[in-house]
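Morning F.,

Quick status update on the modeling queue. The single chain you submitted on Monday has been processed. Sequence for confirmation:
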Amino acid sequence: MESASRYLAISKQQTTLEKGHGRIETRHYQQYDISKLYFDRHWQKSGFHSLFKVDRKQVEIKTDKEFSETAYYISNVEPNKNDNYFQVIRKHWSVEVCKNRV
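Structure tokens below.
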């Protein structure tokens, strides 16, 4: 996925910054149009249209310790829609974090 996102044009992007729970979090979202890419026969009827890349960086305020990761999401939503899929991804991530802490 990393190499694919290097060669695709970005359809939409957004950066957010949040401060809370003793840390500062930066998220950089990118959406790519993958509707014209070739997929294996098994996936050709899936209707994949979008690849989302999310770079997350957290800095603990007290210790200045940094953590970063990149996550990829693939979807059949069409690029350049006005819907805020970045917010949907953000809410999905918060559910995963809460689920993992229980």
